[in-house]
Write a structure and sequence with these properties.
The chain is of the alpha/beta class. It has 11 helices and 11 strands. It folds into 2 domains: 182 residues, Rossmann fold, CATH 3.40.50.450; 115 residues, 3-Layer(aba) Sandwich (Rossmann fold). The strands form 2 sheets. A 7-stranded mixed beta sheet has the order 3-2-1-4-5-10-11, with helices on both faces. Strands 7-8-6-9 form a 4-stranded parallel beta sheet, sandwiched between helices. Helix 1 runs parallel beside helix 9, helix 6 packs parallel to helix 11 and helix 7 packs across helix 8. The structure holds 6-O-phosphono-beta-D-fructofuranose.
């Protein structure tokens, strides 16, 4: 049954992720197609606190599906973590007449969404982070693009490493999760990958693998380190000490957050944006839109925040099987 809704807000919060714009576009266009007005809240929850907004229409979201970053800007709001900040945000929602808010971002964004919903504002969360570290959703918007960006960068590094017969140590993002490192390591044929989900033993996981690769005839080596598993500089120093090699270190950093989103991030983001509006329209605020086995599902926000997902360690076995022979 459709719930009477006149006007909704949409915001992006936390670290930006490629594909956020596809979600914003889908939210605005779906809302408009249902006769619902859509207000873009700028700079994350800070925008709700300060009343920083923009009226959205079909034109404001034209040609943003292919753009990285977020046209609504983003922020990590410290003020919104306080009761006072949350009250100001609620006041803005009331003043603007928002019947619901769609919040796009990571775990921090969902905690903010829960706070807002406890103050009586219906909120729907959409998972978007390059880290893929959200327990309730198998996939988060931006992950595929970030993987492809890192793969592109590492392929380029490999050209020069191969020419000079060197060792490369590349640090990728991911916060406390190793999804990016593991997927990218498999896709680039890395010699070794370090992830936080597995205890790190540099001798066993890196030095021995470099030795095996050398014995198999390789003269250049690619080591991928998740930022949550250690620093590329430290790992490089340990490789040097153990093998005498002189590795080159690259920290890919924020490059991984930018760029035009892949078709997966555009398509999944569009479906999630659509479902979020549908959820608000059917009176189902206070939920998170997630993916499960390729399908879009919606989960109660409190439940979603308590969920954990199993890290795909079987992929580490795949990596080992295809690299140990060098
Ligand atoms: O959560 C996304 C992410 O890019 C992490 O991978 C990284 O640890 C962090 O954000 C970096 O945050 P900031 O942009 O504040 O430096």
């Amino acid at each position: 049954m459709e719930h009477k809704i006149k006007r909704i807000g949409v915001l992006t919060s936390g670290g930006d992720a490629p594909g956020m714009n596809a979600v914003v576009r889908a939210v605005v266009r779906t809302a408009m197609s249902r006769g619902v007005e859509c207000i873009g809240i700028r700079r994350g929850y800070n925008g709700l606190i300060k009343g920083d907004f923009i009226r959205m229409d079909a034109g404001t979201v034209s040609h943003i599906i292919e753009k990285g970053g977020t046209v609504l800007y983003t922020a990590r709001s410290e003020e919104f973590k306080t009761e006072e900040g949350q009250k100001k945000a609620v006041d803005t929602c009331r003043l603007l007449g928002l019947d619901g808010v769609i919040a796009i971002g990571g775990d921090g964004t969902f905690r903010g969404a829960l706070a807002l919903s406890r103050h009586g504002i219906p909120v729907v969360g959409i998972p978007a982070t390059i880290d893929n570290d959200i327990g309730c959703s198998q996939y988060t918007i931006g992950f595929d693009t970030a993987c492809n960006t890192a793969v592109y960068a590492i392929d380029m590094l490999r050209d020069t490493m191969q020419s000079h017969e060197r060792c490369s140590v590349v640090e990728v993002m991911g916060r406390q999760a190793g999804y990016l490192a593991l997927y990218v390591g498999i896709a680039t044929g890395a010699t070794a990958v370090l992830i936080p989900e597995r205890s790190v033993d540099v001798e066993r996981d890196v030095v021995e693998k470099i030795r095996q690769a050398r014995l198999a005839g390789r003269t250049h080596f690619m080591v991928v380190v998740a930022e949550g598993a250690g620093s590329a500089m430290d790992i490089s120093a340990k490789i040097h000490e153990a093998t005498g090699l002189d590795p080159r270190v690259t920290v890919l950093g924020h490059i991984q957050r930018g760029g035009s989103p892949t078709s997966r991030d555009r398509e999944t983001g569009t479906r999630m944006g659509y479902e979020a509006v549908q959820a608000l329209m059917s009176g189902n605020g206070n939920c998170v839109i997630a993916t499960k086995d390729g399908k879009i599902v919606n989960i109660d926000i409190e439940e979603a925040l308590a969920m954990t997902k199993e890290f795909p360690m079987d992929r580490y076995d795949v990596l080992e099987a295809v690299t140990t022979n060098g």
